[in-house]
Each structure stands twice: as C-alpha cells, then as structure tokens.
Design goal:
Residues 1-20 are annotated as: Disordered. It comes from Sphaerobolus stellatus (strain SS14). The active site is at residues 588, 632. FAD binds at residues 185, 330. By secondary structure, this protein is α+β, with helices and mostly antiparallel strands. The chain has a single domain (1-327, 364-380, 403-652), classed as Glucose Oxidase, domain 3 (2-Layer Sandwich). 23% of the residues lie in helices and 20% in strands. It has 16 helices and 29 strands. Strands 10, 20, 21, 22, 23, 24, 27 and 28 form an 8-stranded antiparallel sheet that branches. Strands 5, 6, 14, 15, 16, 17 and 29 form a 7-stranded mixed sheet that branches. A 4-stranded antiparallel sheet has the order 1-2-3-4, with no helix packed on it. Strand 3 (54-62) and strand 4 form a beta hairpin. Helix 3 runs parallel beside helix 16 and helix 14 (533-550) crosses helix 15. The longest helix is centred in the C-terminal third of the chain and has 18 residues, at 533-550. It is globular. The structure holds flavin-adenine dinucleotide. Residues 111-117, 135-138, 181-184, 188-190, 192-196, 329-330, 369-372, 374, 378, 587-588, 621-622, 632-635, 637 line the site of flavin-adenine dinucleotide.
Length: 652
C-alpha cells in the first residue's frame, strides 16, 4: 500500500504532452505556466569535444502551491519529462494524511527511501508480521525518462531529483566551490548515479571486519550478500566477466555494456601490448580488481536498475505491510520520553519548512537510511553529535557523540582528454534527429545507443611500492589487492577520448556540519579535498599513468594530441595547478557515521549498526562505512544493507 497522495497533475503524462522542442512559452490546461528563461550549454564532464548537449532552464510558476516559483533545467526533448517531474514534485501528502500517520502503528520506520532504505524496506516486509513505513523527502521515480534511460544519467543534476548541495569553498582547490549531487527521489542516489557496479576489493571488506572487530563484515563472510547482485544481459558476455563470482537470483540487475565501441579492441590490445602495467582482469568484482576490466553496470532490460525499480518494484510495493510516504522531510529523531536508557523511536516529519511537524513512533526500531549527508544532518539536528558544536547553534544535546558528521571520505577526480583521428558521427547528444530515433528505439524495445552510459572499460592501478610518496605516508589502501587509482580508459565519442582519473584511497577527510539550527537549511559539506599531499600525488601519478596507457602501440596513429591538461603540462607544479583547478567529487561521500567496535568511544554505530549510547535507532547507508572502498560505492551499500536486514530480522 502507498500512502502517497495523488497529484492533481498526474494525468499529464507523455501521452498527453508529446515532446515540444520549439516550445518557448506554453500554458497548460492547468494553472501552470512554463517559461524558458535561459538557454545554456552544460560542459560535459566526461567529454572535452566542446560539443556538449544543450540544456534549457525553466522558470515554473503555479497558483495554489506554497512554493510558486522554481527553476529547473532539462534537455529540450525532455519537456514531457518536465511534466512528469512537476507532477511528482507536487505529490505532496496533504496535512491530513500526514497527521493520520501519527495515529498508525509501525514496527519499523525507515528514514530515506534511497539505495539502502529500499533494500531494508523490501527485506523487512518479507515478514508479513512487520509493518514498515518508509519516509522519503523526494518524489517518485516512476515514469521519469531521465532516470529510466541509462544514457540520460547526466541529465539529473540540478533537477528536483537532486538535493543540489554545494560544498564550502575548498582550500585544496584554490577556494573553488563544488556541487555535490545526491538523489532526492525514491531510490535515492541509485536513481541518479552513473550505474557503475564495483564491489571494491576483498581487502576493503577485510579491513571493515578488522577495524570493527566483527568478522561478519569480511569478504568471505559477506559472500551470501555479495552474490545477491547478478549480472544479466542479452548479449554473449563470454570473456567479459567471471560467472563464478556472481549470483544469479538477486533482486537488482547488473549487466555488461551492450553497444560495441570503436575503441574497445584497442583497449583490449593494450592489455596485451603493455600487460606488465595494464594486465587484463576478467572480473572487476572478483575481490581482486587490479588490471583492465569490462565495466559492469546496474542496467537491466535496457533500463536503469535503481533500488526503487527493483527492491521497490510494484510486486513489493503492493505488500499490505509496506507503506511509503513521499515528498516528506524528516527533521529530527526524538526520545520516546519513557524513563530509562535513551530510546530514539520517534521521528519528526513535515511536508515543508512552514508546515506542521508530525511525530511518528516505531514500536520496534527507527532505521536511518538518509545517506552520508542526510543521516548526520538529521542526527545533528536532533541533538546527537559534538555537544560543544551543537551548543554553539543553540541545539540541546541529547547524546554527545563527537564523531557524527566527521570522517567524511570522498573520491576526488580530475580528467585527461585526447584528440583522435576518429570521425564525428552525429549522436543523440549533438543531433535532435538522432536523439528522436534513438529514443523511439529505446521506447519500442529498450535497446540501442541510449542503453549505453559512457565507456566499456576501467583500469585499476596501484602506485608502485617503491614510490617516494611512501616515505612520507603509510600506504592508505586496505591491502595489496586494492587499487590507488581508477582510470576510465576507452571512453570515446568519435573524435575525442576522455578519461576520469580518480584517487580511490584518499587520505583527506572532512566534515558534514550544521549551518544553523533550522533542519531545512542545507548542511555545511567540507570534504577537504586535496588537503593531503598523498591525494595530490595520486592524481599526478594517475595522469602520468593514463599517458603511458595511450602511448601504447594500439593507439599509434589514432591519437593526435592531448587536449587537457596538454602535453606541455608535465612538471609536478604544473600538474598540481591543473589538478587543483579541475578536481571535482566523484559523488562517493561516505563514513560520516562510521562503524567501530562495540564499546569503542570513537565511531557512531556498533558493528550491528546500532547508534552508540542509545536504543531504538540503527543506521544503514553509506555513512556507516569505516573507510571509503576503492571503487564506486553503490554495490557496498547494497551489500551492507542486505546484511543489515538479516541482522535486524535476527534481532526481532
Ligand atoms: C551523481 C552520482 C553518481 C554516482 N555514480 C555512481 C556509480 O556510477 N556507481 C556507484 O557504485 N556509485 C555511484 N554513486 C554513489 C552511490 O549511488 C551512493 O553511494 C549510494 O547510492 C548511496 O546510497 P545510500 O543509501 O547511502 O544513500 P541514498 O541512495 O542517497 O539515499 C538516501 C535517501 O534518503 C533521502 N533523505 C535524505 N535526507 C532525508 C530527510 N531529511 N528526510 C527524508 N528523506 C531523506 C534521500 O532523498 C535519498 O532518497 C553516485 C552517486 C551520485 C549522486
């Protein structure tokens, strides 16, 4: 059952409003006015060809709502998506339905219907005796083209599906202010992410086990949960992955790229020509990711496989014991007020900043799955965090846990791009006719170029052990199977090749703090990028490594020139300046409510993910990782959430 109220505009589907590329002003049948106020070209983070897709900025006004003007951005062809977006944003639960929640009984209340929250909701409601409520701040993911179509993944930043966070000025990046995308929609960041599926290394999980004192978090002991995410795809994938390291009956889809790229063979040839430095690795998810492997993505049956589509599929959403409320913001968790140990089973919610605050109580547990930014934000607003910091903002402390919001790890990334002799062919990014054709194919049978997202290969490399940097820093990686660098080789759009260089074992750590005592104010996010020289060294090393990759024989006569940073940018100082001016977040913030051993004074949760110093509340999301894994972070979140669901079920 879903409690989400129906939108008055829900009837405005794609069928009612076909694409309208020439639109400049459109009055719809309802009271919405849409005006294109600004047209701009968004530089493609992953391509340096200068042929970025054109986007449009909309000012939207309506009567009858308390938030009459909003600015949205989207592709021209996505006007229909705009209508879906608008209707979803206004599927607000009315005050009556919201206060009705306070009178109902729930065994578990899950804060955040994101990646982890969807897994927990699914697994707990397998038991018909558990009545579960999920509270999600964002709208529904249903029918949103930019979420469903894999190739449109970059269209989701700065929309209503993104929290639109900005960071504090980064001292390590010449004071630049970066954005941080986070999913603000059912399915959370799995609904907006780049869909890369990487578990990280076996060392990463063995280190989780070591630092938490719980062998249940080790690579071997997590295998039942790791194998719940299978690769499934229509084409012949022999030689592109290792079926022995995958399960085939999980809920999520994971697949291999289905549209061959012109450069694929050159990449594979490089793993032969330069095999000492860039060996072929059959499966990035074997626990030993080092080498060049085929990319695995959370794409299935031609569509993004996000947690809302899979773990909250209609057959699960229709369970009578699962209740999902959308567009509803959790402001705080509160004590039950019963004498005895601090018992945090009350959740305070509101539709918006000025609306009434309603309290919902869980009879068994509250599970916070609001992500690495949302979770510490809610805890701090609740008075759970560093007592002195909270006092400075006038917030009464209910639990002095100084590590809340500390220890923020994220992956800094820069890029390298080359000009090739490859010919530009019109693509959906550059040509409206091609886009219309590709979209028609995708809509007809979920195939074609729009099922692709970026390239097919990634190289995972280590900084050599005799490198000078290890005289200044201990090796920050979790072990010898663990890469220091991710290099997205083989991403080509015809005439250019681009490559993300990612430092996947960063040593800079930062914070998530409160800006004010108003829960509706965005937090202060400060990853402290490149404040550690190790991270700067790693990115320099990454740029030099990628230059060696593309100087292999397979690329002779194909690569014409280096576009950025440019072949003349070679000295440490010049590379440092380029890196400081270009680094952005790879969108992998974690560890802001990290796990530590039972009884340890550091950390925020114990290895069973219970909040330290209280009862009634667990945290299950990316914030509990003690370190960032050396890979993308959604697979670890799925794995953590699958095990957490079993821990919770066992407890009850
Ligand atoms: C742009 C982008 C690209 C990425 N690319 C990749 C990739 O290619 N591969 C990969 O493995 N990982 C990628 N990631 C990272 C990965 O998606 C995340 O690490 C993972 O999904 C986080 O899961 P989570 O459950 O911790 O949080 P989320 O999935 O973000 O879920 C948190 C949920 O809580 C909700 N919420 C937050 N605060 C509140 C509140 N106060 N009240 C109610 N609800 C609230 C949010 O709206 C959200 O739905 C990417 C992330 C982004 C944003």
């Amino acid at each position: 059952m879903s409690i989400a109220a129906r939108s008055p505009f829900a009837r405005h589907t794609r069928a009612h409003h076909p694409s309208c590329p020439a639109l400049s002003r459109q009055r719809l049948r309802t009271n919405i006015t849409v005006i294109i106020i600004h047209e701009r070209t968004v530089p493609c983070a992953y391509m340096h060809s200068g042929r970025s897709p054109t986007w449009y900025k909309f000012e939207v006004s309506s009567t009858g709502y308390d938030n009459p003007k909003r600015i949205y951005q989207m592709r021209q062809l996505s006007f229909a998506s705009f209508i879906v977006l608008w209707s979803h944003c206004h599927q607000a639960v009315d005050a009556q339905s919201l206060s009705d929640l306070a009178t109902k009984t729930f065994d578990f209340v899950i804060i955040g219907g994101g990646t982890a929250g969807s897994v927990i909701a699914n697994r707990l409601t397998e038991n018909p005796k558990f009545n579960v409520l999920v509270i999600e701040a964002g709208p529904s993911n249903d029918g949103v083209l930019d979420i469903m179509v894999p190739a449109f993944a970059f269209g989701l930043a700065n929309t209503a599906y993104d929290w639109n966070f900005t960071m504090v000025p980064q001292v390590g990046l010449n004071g630049r202010v970066l954005t941080l995308e986070r999913g603000h929609v059912l399915g959370g960041s799995s609904s907006v992410n780049g869909m890369d599926y990487t578990r990280g290394s076996s060392d990463d999980y063995d280190r989780f086990a070591r630092v938490t004192g719980d062998q249940g978090w080790s690579w071997n002991n997590l295998q039942p949960y790791i194998l719940r995410c299978p690769p499934a795809d229509g084409h012949n994938v022999t030689g592109e992955f290792d079926p022995r390291v995958h399960g085939f009956d999980g809920i999520n889809f994971v697949s291999l790229g289905s549209n061959p790229l012109a450069v694929d063979q050159r990449v594979i040839q490089t793993t032969v020509d330069l095999k000492d430095e860039f060996p072929f690795s059959l499966d990035v998810n074997s626990g030993k990711p080092l080498g060049v492997s085929w990319v695995q993505s959370t794409i299935g049956q031609g569509e993004r496989s996000n947690a809302a589509r899979t773990y909250l599929a209609p057959k699960y959403r229709s369970r009578p014991n699962l209740h999902i409320v959308l567009n509803t913001f959790v402001t705080r968790v509160l004590p039950t007020g019963v004498n005895g140990p601090l018992d945090l089973r009350v959740v305070e919610i509101a539709s918006n900043a000025t609306g009434p605050r309603i309290r919902v109580t869980a009879t068994k547990e509250v599970i916070t799955s609001a992500g690495s930014i949302g979770t510490p934000h809610i805890l701090l607003n609740s008075g759970i965090g560093d007592k002195a910091d909270l006092a400075a903002l006038g917030i009464k402390s209910i639990l002095n846990l100084s590590h809340v919001g500390k220890n923020l790890h994220d992956h800094p990334t820069t890029s390298v791009a080359f000009l090739t002799i490859g010919k530009d062919v019109p693509t959906w990014q550059t040509n409206a006719t091609v886009l219309a054709e590709n979209l028609a194919q995708w809509e007809a049978n979920r195939t074609g170029p729009l099922v692709q997202f970026l390239g097919h290969h990634v190289a995972w490399t280590r900084i050599p052990s005799n490198s000078s940097i290890f005289k200044q820093f201990p090796d920050p990686s979790a072990g010898p199977n663990t890469p220091h660098l991710e290099l997205t080789v083989g991403r080509s759009d015809g005439s250019t090749i681009s490559c993300d260089v990612v430092a996947v074992t960063p040593t800079s750590t930062g914070t998530v703090k409160l800006r004010s005592n108003n829960p509706f104010d965005d937090p202060l996010i400060d990853p402290q990028f490149l404040t550690s020289n190790f991270d700067l060294f790693a990115l320099r090393e990454g740029i030099r490594t990628i230059r060696r990759f593309y100087s292999g024989p397979a690329w002779k006569g194909y690569i014409v020139a280096e576009i950025v940073p440019g072949a003349n940018v070679t000295s440490d100082d010049d590379l440092n300046e380029y890196i400081r001016n270009t680094v952005s977040s790879f969108a992998h913030p974690v560890s802001t409510a990290k796990m530590s051993p039972k009884g340890a004074s550091n950390g925020v949760v114990d290895p069973d993910l219970r909040l330290k110093g209280a009862k009634g509340l667990r945290i299950v999301d990316a914030s509990v990782m003690p370190f960032v894994t050396a890979g993308h972070t959604q697979a670890p979140v799925y794995i953590i959430a699958e095990r957490a669901a079993d821990i919770i079920k066992a407890a009850w």
